[in-house]
Design a protein that fits this description.
This protein is mostly beta strands. It is about 15% helix and about 45% strand. Strands 1-4-10-6-7-8 form a six-stranded antiparallel β-sheet. A three-stranded antiparallel β-sheet has the order 9-5-11, with no helix packed on it.
Length: about 180
């Protein structure tokens, strides 16, 4: 068998040019890695049912508390003294802000909504949050410090105008903001 040097030279030239093209277009990378393990955070503050939970329709699902049955008479005041409590499960104090996320619905028919915080152990007032008054949303209640192994009850006071009817509703979203 005879070797065709001309064909072999073309093949070697083609092979060399292919290798040059492949190596010229190949990118060079340096890698760095990051590994993470993510777990569930244990919260020191938690919602627990208050004494008026049945009347207020209190439902707790993790960090969310929903009050589904708060009502008030027209031109009168309804007080829910203990629909839900904030419980500090830690042995140390925890500071939080109580913020108004939103107030919506038939607010033109609402006189006022006030949420008052009381220490369950000694009934001491721990602050008042005016949610709605005089046709406007109130401001936040900031820098509240709840001591360890303590419960505070949230008292809701609802005042509708005299023109309010059973068809009127107002939705309130509050937020407890705890620094991490």
């Amino acid at each position: 068998m005879e070797i065709n040097f001309k064909r072999l030279a073309k093949f070697v030239a083609l092979l060399i040019s292919t290798l040059l093209i492949a190596s010229a277009s190949a990118a060079i990378y340096n890698y760095m890695y990051q590994d993470a393990t993510i777990s569930v955070e244990g919260m020191t503050l938690e919602w627990i049912l208050g004494a008026d939970n049945g009347t207020a329709g209190t439902q707790i699902n993790g960090v969310t508390c929903t009050l589904t049955n708060l009502k008030g008479p027209p031109n009168g005041t309804r007080v829910y003294g203990d629909p839900v409590r904030l419980n500090n499960t830690a042995g140390s104090s925890s500071t939080f802000d109580l913020l108004i996320d939103s107030v919506s619905g038939d607010t033109a028919e609402m006189d006022s909504i006030v949420v008052r915080l009381y220490n369950v152990t000694n009934s001491a007032s721990m602050g008042n949050l005016t949610v709605w008054s005089g046709g406007a949303q109130g401001g936040p209640l900031t820098s509240r410090t709840i001591t360890g192994n303590t419960q505070w009850r949230f008292q809701w006071e609802i005042n509708w105008k005299s023109t309010a009817t059973v068809a009127h509703t107002v939705n309130v979203n509050l937020k407890v903001q705890v620094p991490a």
